Amino acid sequence: MKPVEDTESFLRRIIREELARALGGLLEEDERDGALVYFMASERTALVKIGYARDPERRRLQLERGGERVRILAVMNGGRSLEQELHTKFADRRVVGEWFDPTPELVAFIEQHGRPWP
Question: pTM of the prediction?
Answer without folding.
Answer: 0.73
